[in-house]
Amino acid sequence: MPGKHAMLSASGAHRWMTCTPSAVLEAQFPENTSEYAEEGTFAHALADLIINYNLHNLKKADFYKRFKKMKENRYFSQELLEYVEGFANQVFEYTNEAKLLCDDVIVLTEQRLDFSNYVPEGFGTGDVVIIADKELHIIDLKYGKGVGVVAEDNPQIRLYALGALNEFGMLYDIEQVRMTICQPRLDMITSETLTVEELLEWAETEVKPKAEMAMAGEGEFVVGEHCRFCRAKATCKARAEYNLELAKFEFKAPELLQDDEIGEVLTKAEQLADWVKDITEYALQEALKGKKWTGWKLVEGRSNRTYVDEIKVAETLKAAGYDEAVIYEKKLYGITAMEKILGKKTFAELLSDLVIKPPGKPVLVPESDKRPEIGTAANAVQDFAN
Hints:
Number of helices: 14
Shape: globular
Mean pLDDT: 87
Radius of gyration: 26 Å
Oligomer: single chain
Helix content: 40-55%
CATH class of the largest domain: Alpha Beta
Number of strands: 5
Strand content: 5-15%
């Protein structure tokens, strides 16, 4: 995967297309990585290896040599391998589907896709690109499980599709573009299919003008779910103003608020909590760099005692005559840890009858949440009356 990131990245397209001035603001902050991102990068690399082996692009000896090295990576686990293999098998199925359309199917992995004719310096990496006669198929792996990502109206994968169309549109008589997002850890696969004309119209009417505005830092700041991964989220004034609108309710007791006011508070409360958390983390990191905040100071947080050397502790206690049952705590691994050790398939084969999932505690969520609404006593009475 390319190490350089353009200011208007495909992965951030939903953000800069919705909130066009955010790109220039965000560029002032350094890019950060995380263990989740590193794990995702490793999953993509492993998927690329397995897919190319399945497609006979790698000799068996070369594959096992590289696979052996990957098994030494800190992020490798049986669970990750099974999810990645599931994705690779899905790609293999899509490839076989394409072969029913034409004999000369082309499958490319980790393909650099340039869409800079619509977005300045715009490029990305397509995990899998399948070219089969009149159809271009872009397949994107999302290894994360925190947020479900759907293909419909997804600007990231559409930009990848534009890049692929730029690359191969002149060579093949492509009529439609299929875009698929696979999120194996959520057991989720979604697709969207557009004609070439529909995709190009979207690029001209939506992408191009918004990209020009974003590069110039023009437009209105818009607060929403897209703020979640914005590097400027902690200091963005628009986000602050939006969250501080709750002050108009003057912290009234819930029973003193109107129903529509409670609905508004619920809508903003989660974002408010996230905003406070972001500011707190930002202020701490700046303080660690030497910045002074009026009325605040850095202190040493609470800590717990810890053994210097657990092995020596055990040896000392054994030498003093203590039994191992006193020294060691014997505890079963939790379900998540056990599944990671055994792998999802083996875990299911051996332990599926010994695992239950009780109903979750009721929570209030926005109507857009995909989970079904649960029944209440009041709802039951109303249904009976109807």
